[in-house]
Amino acid sequence: MKNVLYVISISLLFLNCNSQTKKEENAEAPASRKALINKEYDSVAKARYTAAKRYNDSLAVVMQWQPVNKDSLLWRSKNGDLGFPTASFRPPDHEIAFYMTHFNDGKQTEFKDVIDAATYKLISGGGYGYGAYFRDKRNIYNYWGNSDGGGFDIVDADYKTFENLSDCYARDKNYIYDLRFGKIEEIDAKTFVLIDAEKCIGRDKNGYYQRNDLLTKERLKDDPETRAIINKDKKRNHKKS
Q1: pLDDT, tens digit, for every residue of 41-51?
Q2: How far apart are CA 216 and CA 193, in angstroms?
């Protein structure tokens, strides 16, 4: 019995050492092996992308979606539906495209029942991704992006005074609007000034903002680039006064 236990103990020790050796070999895999693994992953990612793109293209073929015009980013299907092309993303690289045809109002109100396609156009933002604003002869509209494809809203804004400030902000006589988060009630519209369009930084009488966030000392502690932009603006204003 003792001999059997001894053999089992030696076997387990051997297996454990062998397993540890394999782990160390994997951890210290040569660059060529790692490159092969990356190449295999890239080929899978490419195949997934190709399949997703094929599916995306098939939507336009089956439903015969056609752009309403070259500037509006609005499409019309063979059934007369109006749609906004967007996509749902699933990590690491899977994408399913679809045409959004309803407002995010809880009522499933269809675009075709509200939007005037003849006057509909992009007025702020790139149209996809983070967010954008659109206008027709009656309303202001906001698309906001997320990994599920985003949503589309009719904006409760003053139509006559609504204008684009940058690819970050828009405004009307009462409020400042972020491209994705919409109305920012905390910002004082009357004193708001855009400081840096690329970094989406602005200020009002109460402080500095980046998109819809107030830039506190804590927020700026680890952001020297934004601090430099704000300090430059403060110096410029000090000279004016």
Answers
A1: 456 556 655 65
A2: 18
